[in-house]
C-alpha cells in the first residue's frame, strides 16, 4: 500500500517549526499520539515522510488511547497502520468510568486529557520512545491563547517543545505553524481513515474552544494576515515557562 504524500506546504511549515524549536534530534524515537483525527493522522504521515528524507535519522511509531466511550471506535486504525508497517500500540482504558469515581472538581475533558497523557507516557517508556509528538496546529494554539487571556487572565498557549517534569521524555508539536484547513484538505485528498468527533463526550455540546474558533474565523475574514501575525505573537509563548498542560500525568 502506497503511503500518502504530504503536501510541500505542510512539510515546509512543519520543517520551519521543527528547526525553530529544535524538535527532532539524531537517534530520537518518536511516538505519535494518534487519536484518529485529521490532525494526528497528518502528523503521523508528516513524520514518516521526514524520517525518509531528513539527514537526521529517527524512528516513528504511534499510540492510540481508547477511552472506551460509546461512539468512539478507533479499532480500524490498527489494520490501517499494520498495512503500512507502522509500529502501533493500542491502549484501552475505561476513562469515563474512572472519571465518575475520581474526577472531583475537574471537567471531564481535563480529566480525560490527563489520563490519556499518562497512558501515552507509560507506553513510550515501556517501548523505548523518548519523544511524544502531538498534533495540535496553529489554530489550536491561537484558540488556547485567547481562552487563557479571556478566561484565565494569563498570556499562555501550548508549548511547541518541552521536557516533562520527570525529565525522561520530550513533547513536540511539529504542526505548530500549520493551519487546520491544511490538515483537513490533506486528510480529504489522501482519503485518510479519519474518525470524526473523536471525543464524543467533548463534542456533544458547544465549548469555549468552539467560540474562540468562530471569533478567529470572523476576524480572519476581515484581516487575512491574522494568523501570520498571531504566529509571530505566539512565538515567545511557545517557548517560555512551564506548559499549562503538563501535570501529574508525567
What does this 3D model show about the protein?
The protein has 250 residues and is an alpha/beta fold. The chain has a single domain, classed as HUPs (Rossmann fold, 3-Layer(aba) Sandwich). The chain is built from 10 helices and 6 strands, in the order H-E-H-E-H-E-H-H-E-H-E-E-H-H-H-H. Strands 3-2-1-4-6-5 form a 6-stranded mixed beta sheet, with helices on both faces.
Tally of individual domains: 1
Broad CATH class: Alpha Beta
Query: What's the total helix number?
Result: 10
Question: What is the helix/strand order?
Answer: HEHEHEHHEHEEHHHH
CATH homolog superfamily = HUPs
Which structural category do the helix and sheet elements fall into? alpha/beta
Annotated CATH topology: Rossmann fold
Helix content: 40-55%
Low-confidence stretches: none
Major β-sheet strand ordering: 3-2-1-4-6-5
- What is the percentage of strand-forming residues? 5-15%
Our measurement of the CA-to-CA distance between the termini, rounded to an integer number of angstroms, reads 36 Å
Average the pLDDT over all residues and give the rounded result.
89
CATH architecture: 3-Layer(aba) Sandwich
Q: Can you count the beta strands?
A: 6
What shape does the CA trace take? globular
Largest sheet: 6 strands, mixed
Could you tell me the radius of gyration in angstroms? Answer: 17 Å
Amino acid at each position: 500500500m502506497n503511503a500518502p504524500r504530504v503536501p510541500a506546504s505542510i512539510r515546509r511549515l512543519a520543517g520551519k517549526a521543527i528547526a525553530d524549536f529544535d524538535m527532532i534530534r539524531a537517534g530520537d524515537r518518536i511516538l505519535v499520539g494518534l487519536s484518529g483525527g485529521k490532525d494526528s493522522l497528518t502528523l503521523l504521515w508528516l513524520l514518516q515522510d521526514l524520517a525518509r528524507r531528513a539527514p537526521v535519522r529517527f524512528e516513528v511509531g504511534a499510540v492510540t488511547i481508547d477511552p472506551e466511550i460509546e461512539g468512539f471506535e478507533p479499532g480500524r486504525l490498527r489494520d490501517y497502520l499494520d498495512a503500512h508497517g507502522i509500529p502501533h500500540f493500542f491502549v484501552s482504558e475505561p476513562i469515563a468510568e474512572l472519571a465518575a469515581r475520581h474526577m472531583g472538581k475537574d471537567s471531564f475533558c481535563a480529566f480525560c486529557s490527563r489520563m490519556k497523557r499518562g497512558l501515552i507516557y507509560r507506553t513510550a517508556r515501556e517501548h523505548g520512545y523518548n519523544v511524544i509528538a502531538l498534533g495540535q496546529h496553529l489554530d489550536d494554539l491561537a484558540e488556547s491563547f485567547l481562552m487563557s487571556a479571556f478566561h484565565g487572565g494569563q498570556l499562555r498557549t501550548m508549548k511547541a517543545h518541552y521536557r516533562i517534569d520527570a525529565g525522561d521524555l520530550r513533547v513536540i508539536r511539529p504542526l505548530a505553524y500549520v493551519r487546520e484547513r491544511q490538515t483537513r484538505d490533506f486528510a480529504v485528498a489522501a482519503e485518510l481513515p479519519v474518525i470524526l468527533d473523536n471525543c464524543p463526550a467533548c463534542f456533544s455540546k458547544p465549548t469555549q474552544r468552539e467560540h474562540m474558533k468562530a471569533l478567529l474565523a470572523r476576524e480572519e475574514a476581515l484581516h487575512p494576515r491574522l494568523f501570520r501575525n498571531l504566529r509571530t505573537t505566539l512565538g515567545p509563548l511557545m517557548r517560555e515557562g512551564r506548559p499549562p498542560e503538563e501535570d501529574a500525568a508525567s
